[in-house]
Amino acid sequence: MPFIPVKGDNLDQSQSLPEQSGWMNMKLISKKKKLFPISEPLLEYLNHYTRTRDLPVRYEDLLRYTEAIPLLDKNEKDTLWATCMYSHSEEEEIHKGLTQIYSQLKAAGDVAITDHLYVERVDFCTFGNSNPFRVRIVNLYNDNYDHFYVKKADASRIYGLELEDILSPNRINYLVCENTLIEEHIAGIPGDIFLGEILDRPSTNKVRIAKEFVKFNERCVARLLGDMRAYNYVIDITPDFEDEQYRVRAIDFDQQSYEGKIQAYLPHFFPDNKKVVDLCGQILNPQTIRQYQLEERTLIARRLNFAKNQVVMLTEAMRFGELSLPEKTQELKLGLQRFHKDDRFLQCANMGDLVVLNLEITLAYKLGT
Q1: What SS3 class is residue 338?
Q2: Residue 300 in contact with residue 167, Cβ under 8 Å?
Q3: Helix, strand, or coil here: 77?
Q4: Is 124 strand, coil or helix?
Q5: How many folded domains does the chain comprise?
Q6: First and final CA of the chain: distance in angstroms?
Q7: What are 154-180's pLDDT values in tens digits?
Q8: Do residues 88 and 132 both lie within one domain?
């Protein structure tokens, strides 16, 4: 493994094959994570930062479909999504409500834009923790389309979305209404497709993608975002005047501060990321990797400094209510204690405490909570 944390790390990173001990065993990742309710402190935070709305359609309303037809991709392969059919009376009401939700998500609730928008498709996915609905919205004037997602609200996912919005270079737009979560679509090439079909192209700047993966790895471990297997992130490609720039963006936040294994928070320990991990080892020397890690930690600390009060309120809310199972919290305490060689982790009472202390140690920044 080529990644060299600035502090601690007694994990075995000397091996480079998936079957060897350093790699994350996929069986250790929970296939179906329990959904955790929104606590009162978290709801107070969401209200304070205007993340809550009164929505005309809720998650439960979309479950009233009468039929679901498997959705196939351009190669006639099952996408694991199914297009939902509603009765005529239900469809009109649901589609109208979904266009209104889109206006709240994108245009501060200005209903004027809904006159030329329509819902082309509502898809349902039974794969994953949140069983999301994906809504395809189309502009009547030019046929341009966009997507957003309707999911079951889960405290872990909401904390993950907030930490991503505050501490990463990426902004996240979402809304919460009781047990319903609305998320905008995050554009990009799925990581598994990029690694399988695009990484080896001659036009791909491999040094830049290696650099971005190192930085992505740092963002995940700093805020304890887990399960970044290749299909849980996308690659955003931006043409530059001489080449291409890349950004690795998480798209799944279910495993924010949930798993007990420390490796679950380090993307370079997942076997399906092996191809890009090997690339990092081939073209980046340890000094360069350390440079990129320090650069990213500095940027995270700078963002944290600008939003310190917001992060303090958010992490205070994390200390209340469930975010993980007691045995996973205990396991992560021990893992972080060994990772950082710091016994203060053993005194942490919950996942919120662990996130705060991990941020403070990783970034050399005092939150003051």
Answers
A1: helix
A2: yes
A3: coil
A4: strand
A5: 2
A6: 35
A7: 999 999 999 999 999 999 999 999 999
A8: yes
